Amino acid sequence: MQEIITLKHGEGTKASYSLIKEVFLKKLSNPALEKLTDAATIGKLVFSCDSFTVDPIFFPGSDIGKLSVFGTVNDICVSGGIPKYLSLAIIVEEGFLKSDLIKIVDSIKLAARISKIDIASGDFKVVERGKADKIFISTSGIGEKIPQANPSFKNIKNKDKVVVTGSIGEHGISVMLSRKKIFEFNIKSDCQSLNKLVTSLWMKFPQINFMRDPTRGGIASVLNEISLGSRKGIRVFEEAIPVRRDVKAACEILGIDPYYLACEGRAILIVPNTISNKVLNFLKKTSKSAAIIGEIDSSLKGVLLETVSGGERILDFSHSFNLPRIC
User: Fold this and answer.
1) Hey, which of 26, 52, 227, 291 would disulfide with 68, CB 3.0 to 4.6 Å?
2) Which residues in the chain show pLDDT less than 70?
3) Nearest 10 degrees: Cα torsion 10, 76, 244, 320
4) What CATH code is assigned to 7-145?
5) What is the pTM of this model?
């Protein structure tokens, strides 16, 4: 029986990671791709692409337009680049409202202005009714490499600290609640541009060893990717992970683990222990919920979570999906 692609292959699960390694990396391997960073560094350029299929297309705090810009901008930022230009490809199905398209393009315009980038190229296609779900957007971004920035799994060392730039899970739970429409919570997506914050971080702290934004699969998947890429274990402290009270409450009702929920305006940093407090104090100026949540531990394999009750559990990749089409 032939293996088929399922929704879990696109959700930042262990199946996603395995598919990337077994199919795409195996078939298309080259020095730029093998680094498995959010964007490729090619000489003085940082290059990334992404596709957006989020459902619903409008949700509290954002929409597919802003998401498509900020998602690619953030990938360039955490990879050590200053975003400059984006391409924009839009596919809609027949019957899509022109007023909604205008609203989305207005959001794209605003997000581009906030991110200080230009939409330099684009494409627009229409498919038959029922051949797509409303609207899909694909973007590619080009940035200028920050000379001081050199994010790499190879830089990560034992006792490095794990820092998160803000509270987690708000994007994922916002989209889920908007889709389900069964609970009343005033939770907005954290969708925002990391351009200003992350560029400042790279300029002030070039010693930062690695950075990634925790989108599909949340912080759990990102930490596991970092563990596999660096071949080092990670110890995480549950009491230190910033999760808003209302996000926790919504997760408890829905039976969702917030560590697997996507963020669209946060970054995970791996920084030397010697500068971790300085980095945190810098972040606290703009984000009170920024926190040191763990450390690299070479004695471990994978990611270990120390719980608030004093126990320990493995924080693995998710093996199933909680919410398809999150971005």
Assistant:
1) 52
2) 319-322
3) 10
4) 3.30.1330.10
5) 0.94
